[in-house]
Amino acid sequence: MGAPALLVLFVFHYLPLAGLAIAFEDFRPSTGIFGSHWVGLANFRYLLAGGDAWRITRNTVGMNGLFIAANLVVSLGLAVLLNELRDRSRWLSRVYQSTMFLPYVLSYVVLTNFVLTFLESNTGIVNHLLRAFGGNGVDFYNSPGWWPLILTVVEVWKGAGFWVVVYLAGIMAMNPQLFEAAALDGAGRWAQIRRITLPLLTPLIIMNVLLSVSHIFNADFGLFFQVTLNSPTLYPTTDVIDTYVYRSLTSTGDIGMAAAAGFYQAVVGFLLVVGANWWVRRRSGENALF
Amino acid sequence: MAQQASTLDRPRPAVRSRPRVDVPRIVMHGILTLVSLAFVMPLLIIVSASFSSESAISANGYSVLPRQFSTFAYRYVLDDPSAILRAYGVSILVTTVGTVASLAVMSMLAFSLAQRSYRLRRPLSFYVLFTMIFSGGLVPGYILITQYLHLQNTLLVLILPYLVSPWFVLLLRTFFSQLPDEILDAARVDGAGDWRLFTRIVLPLSKPALATVGLFVALVYWNDWWLGLLYITNDKLIPVQLFLYRILTNIDFVTSQSQFAGQSLDVPIQTLRAAIAVLAIGPIVVAFFFVQRFLIRGITVGGVKD
């Protein structure tokens, strides 16, 4: 019964693995993967020599690190808050939960529109407010320094609702008797959260962070390409491996270097997730992913 | 702040003697109300902008309620509706076919992986999991699809790459494996084969999971512009999101040109962009409101482990 799905995975996930060889070739579409000239590490040397490798690695890992931390704090905090209100304000807490989830269903193209509405230099809401309070407008789309903050806010705004639902589901699965017993022993709200809710959520938190770490080398293309309007002046802070590979493939047409960057991304990302998993397994075996 | 912390620390009173005014609760409601507003406000602003007049926005900026109610932007878009209707058609077709097919093949795989007696359970689970942690990346996939499979400029290229998502397969597997064994065993004793068991018992019992995963898959298809950007050059096959993307980039182009020439345009730029965004959001938000009551029951994430 699993055959159709296994076949799709094979074609779209396993077959491309053979294409990893392109990173070591002077690839020509006319000769294909198996007929192109083998050049060893030349593509990688070219990538490193350009100085781009460090910048895109730093941006990818740095921004993803920011996202993971911000998302964890915000979604965990909101889930705990929602849980405290859940039993006595069912209706309201459902409304909160739904509104938080809402941005998750929007596409990055739509999000780009929202961000423009806020940050555009003339009519944008933020500049409107800045000027209303006597300040000067900021030309956000030409100021790379602002974008780590902007993209983190956008990412948390879009994604937090999903993780709130996940954590809330985790909290709801906990045995209520634990909380009743703790309350009898005189544990207040805060003590219950700290001593019961958070420790019991730890496996879920570890899994979330492990999954995020496994993607720390894969930036969200939509976020970095669309939301920044692919503005070259922002590249110092917003150019990540994914946007770099896309550009090398489509505009500069350097397939070999794009493949080399992609290969680097795949291998280091894989080592990171295996390493993180190994580390978690050593500390608390049952929390490891595999 | 210190005062709030100390009230939070107070032991929770027994149900009957609960005080009328519960300060921490009010504070928490306050925080959550503000947060919720922050989450919906941009949406309200866009909807309101799409119903405002362009001049009002240029003069006074955006607002939560429309300034000078106007449907001009929508009339402007729908003046020549053929392009956007076709984009809608492509997105609706891809989303429906993709979601149904994806749910079908993923739940079939998840069902076999949920069978404890299945001999290949562990290796196949690894086969699925491995695709989550190692991939060939953009270039090999792109070359496979364009040079070897020749799928560019077909509707299939908008459907097939997203058909099986390992994460959802594992989610469904967990849900299936938590169904009570007694029911499945009883059906087996009554002579039901795997296929009958799957379609008559497992699927009907799994509506929350199927609805949730279905919503997520539909989201992926409806919101996709990436596959279109890579593989579609034929104007007749572009989906809604790519249509919006093109309008965005074209407006950018148009405004930069007009600023250069020092003249204003009669294209309602701000409101037009808002109107297209609202049209691109529409169906998926409606779907979200139908499915959201299943969300908590549907997302059982404990399930990545074997």
TrEMBL record, chain A:
Domain of life: Bacteria
Coiled coil regions in record: none
UniProt cross-references to Pfam families, sorted A to Z: BPD_transp_1 (PF00528)
Membrane topology reported for the UniProt record: Multi-pass membrane protein
InterPro entries in UniProt: MetI-like, MetI-like_sf, UgpAE/MalFG_permease
Membrane-traversing stretches: 61-81, 101-119, 146-169, 198-217, 255-280
Compartments, record wording: Cell membrane
Domain ABC transmembrane type-1, chain residue ranges per copy: 57-276
PROSITE patterns, sorted: ABC_TM1
Keywords: Cell membrane, Membrane, Transmembrane, Transmembrane helix, Transport
Similarity comment text for this entry: Belongs to the binding-protein-dependent transport system permease family.
Protein name: Aldouronate transport system permease protein
Species classification: Bacteria, Bacillati, Actinomycetota, Actinomycetes, Propionibacteriales
UniProtKB/TrEMBL annotation, chain B:
Name of the protein this chain belongs to: Aldouronate transport system permease protein
Family according to the record: Belongs to the binding-protein-dependent transport system permease family.
SUPFAM superfamilies, A to Z: MetI-like (SSF161098)
Record's subcellular location: Cell membrane
Transmembrane segments: 26-51, 87-114, 126-149, 155-176, 197-222, 272-291
Lineage: Bacteria, Bacillati, Actinomycetota, Actinomycetes, Propionibacteriales
Membrane topology according to the record: Multi-pass membrane protein
Subcellular location, principal: membrane
Domain ABC transmembrane type-1: 88-290
Record CDD domains: TM_PBP2
Keyword vocabulary terms for this entry: Cell membrane, Membrane, Transmembrane, Transmembrane helix, Transport
Protein origin, superkingdom: Bacteria
Organism: Kribbella aluminosa
